[in-house]
Amino acid sequence: MENLAWVRTEGDPEGVGICLSGGGVRAAAFALGAIQHLQAERGLLYGPSAARYLVGVSGGAYTAAASTINADALRKADQDGPPPLAPGSPEEKHILGHGRYLFSRTQTWGMLMFAELGNFLQILTMFLINLMALPILLLWVGFIAGAASWLVARYGLPLVTAAPIDQMPPWVGVTAVAVAACGFWVIGRGLYLDSLRRGRRLKAAGLGLLVLAGAIAVGRVEQYPLLSQWAAWWWRPLAGVVVIVIAGVVLFWGALFLPGASRKQRQAVARWVVLVSVWTIRIAGAVLVCLAVTQGYRWMKTAATGDMAATILILVILLIGLFMGYVTVRVSPHRWNRKQISSAFAIEREQGHVNCLDPTETPLSGLAPPVAGSSHSFPQLLISATVNIRHKYAGKADTKPAVRGFAPFVFSHDRCGIPDIPGASFDTTVLERGRVPSGALPRRTQPLLTLMSAVACTGAAASPAMGRFEDKIPPAVRTILMLLNIRLGTWLPNPLSSIMRADITAQTGDWDLSQHQGLGGGYDEFVPELLALHRSDAARSYISDGGHYDNLGLTTLIRARCATIWCVDSQADKSGKATQLRQVTELVRELGVEIVGMDPTHFVGSNGILKNCHAIATIRYPGTDKVGTLVVIKLGMAAGEKYQDLKKYQERDDHSFPFHGTFTRMAFGPERMDAYCALGRLNASAAVAAWSDERQQGAAEPFVQTPGTTTSTSLPGHPPAGVNTVLH
């Protein structure tokens, strides 16, 4: 089976690659300035000397997508003029003026409350519908069990119509518990098997066992007169309590993001949110099932007889189940997030102004780069995301295969899939022909994959599944994220499933993803997120933020064996510890690659002033004596007069610049956007100058020894590389 076309596992390093790291709108603005200078000095974004690859992660992908859209438009129009995103261009002005894209398209905070009321209600509706899904799912099963018990009792099954409760044999209760346990186990095993036919059989068998267990247990409800009387008049107060508690949980959750709260206060609120949310849902769900079974049983017994009972039973089950299964999957905030991102970055220059593109009508497959060296050349766009799926991972050469719950997932114009596993990918055009619902109620559909869908996926930091951070997140937090519908990623066909690959490859026209169902409807996404059922034999897999694997996008270019890599690191790293770069260094070691020549203290500074804002290192690929060059352009300010204007802006207007948080301060006005963009140009200028000096010196390694500078060159956890450094 073939791997992705851009992946190279052998040979000498070739070509130039640029990777733009994640970090929300902060990263998008900083990356914009950096690539503007790379284009002005090296012509790496557009023209005959364009780089081979452009990798984007999260906020970096926003800028990478805008650059590629406009480069492709210029190529198709065969027009001369300023390159994409050039300073002063219409598209640059639009991006710098829309840093508040997540909240409002207005430019004044005074209008924010009124302009975003619709957005607030839309998001609140998403939360509430998802919050209702779990108890309604339990109610659904409860109605099935209660009605089945009545039907079986009516037609004379001795197990249910036996003696009163005090005369019931002990083995009956044990049997009910055992049958229920077997039912849950069978459903869990058959929920998302690669073999769809076998999976359906196991799910049917498991549901049958659950219904039988419910029939045995619920058939005794009449023997508990106290429970029947209690349920008859207490259900309204209970419902009110549940609604009030849920509303309180939502308000507490919002308090986590209030500006001015200390870290200790937020941690205290978070603990209460977890405690109240999880136990409220569990207890309320269990009580609601008891009430539903009791009321349903009594209603079915008194209000219906014979065949009429079976008809009403079927209608009730279908109405409740289909409603939640139909709606839950359609109200994910993924689409809302994609729309907001598109309003600022899915733009195309057109006769002196910009045209905002529809996020559902911008195909990724249409962005194929032209022949290298032409006047309209531009890099191949690679959007780096994470697929959350448990699979065996080979790891290092000297270790045994291990099980991981995540893997890199890369979107490109030709194929989308996992680069480490040959054959684990899909043709992009086939994915774009897939259809999914476009909203909560209308029957309209939209493409399963578009350019902006991929961009929204790589920016899906808030998700019930978070790749390499999964083990660090308590299950209760995952439950809260799932219940509140905080799911910015999306579900795609599983590239590890041979059946899905064969089925999708055989599609010649539009096809519907819903034909590959487990429970059906929205529960196919809801239940795996609740129980962390991200299995390798699933029909579908969940795609989330690229930062859940590699927030720099550097590993993608390492897999492509680039000779020169320009890495724009937009981490808000006030101390200069370069944690993202260290983490990626560990990841590439699994590929047999060493990044050497960088002092661990190279960036470290004090009081928010870094020692350096760029670095150069050597990349040693396995199986070849030739080395590559890594140039890091890091977000931050160093000492020097060139930062004088930005420091004045920081002291006068924006004390948090340039280290704004990704989530707590996402709204960037035009002045702040422009400041980050200017900072990107300054730091890229210093990096290009240092790289040019190294090239002129003709050094075999990017760092050469200078008298008085004998410094360890390895990052933490690496053996010394025997190369000394010069701090630029």
Would you spell out the secondary-structure blueprint of this structure?
Elements lengths: L15 E5 L3 H19 L10 E4 L2 H19 L12 H7 L15 H4 L1 H38 L15 H21 L5 H23 L6 H31 L7 H41 L2 H23 L4 H13 L1 E4 L2 E4 L23 E9 L2 E3 L8 E3 L2 E5 L3 E3 L7 E3 H6 E4 L7 E3 L3 H8 L16 H9 L6 E4 L4 H8 L5 E2 L10 H9 L8 E5 L9 H6 L4 E6 L9 H11 L4 E3 L12 E2 L3 E7 L6 E8 L2 E2 L5 H9 L17 H28 L31
Parallel strand pairs: 1-2, 1-16, 2-5, 11-14, 16-20, 18-21
Antiparallel strand pairs: 3-4, 5-8, 5-15, 6-7, 9-10, 11-12, 13-15, 17-19, 19-20
Helix pairs in contact: 1-2, 1-20, 2-13, 5-7, 5-9, 5-10, 6-7, 8-9, 9-14, 11-13, 14-16
Explain how this protein is built:
By secondary structure, the chain is an alpha/beta fold. It has a domain at 129-333. Helix content is 46%, strand content 12%. The chain is built from 20 helices and 21 strands. The strands form six sheets. Strands 1, 2, 5, 8, 13, 15, 16, 17, 19 and 20 form a ten-stranded mixed β-sheet that branches. The radius of gyration is 29 Å and the shape is globular. It starts with 15 loop residues before the first strand and ends in a 31-residue tail after the last helix. Mean pLDDT is 76; it is low at 105-115, 156-166, 221-234 and 699-728.
Can you tell me the overall shape? Answer: globular
Mean pLDDT across all residues, rounded?
Answer: 76
Helix content: 40-55%
Largest sheet: 10 strands, mixed
H/I helix tally: 20
C-alpha Rg (nearest Å): 29 Å
Which structural category do the helix and sheet elements fall into? alpha/beta
Count of β-strands:
21
Task: Tell me the span between the first and last alpha carbons.
Answer: 45 Å
User: How big a fraction of the residues is strand?
Assistant: 5-15%
Poorly predicted regions are 105-115, 156-166, 221-234, 699-728
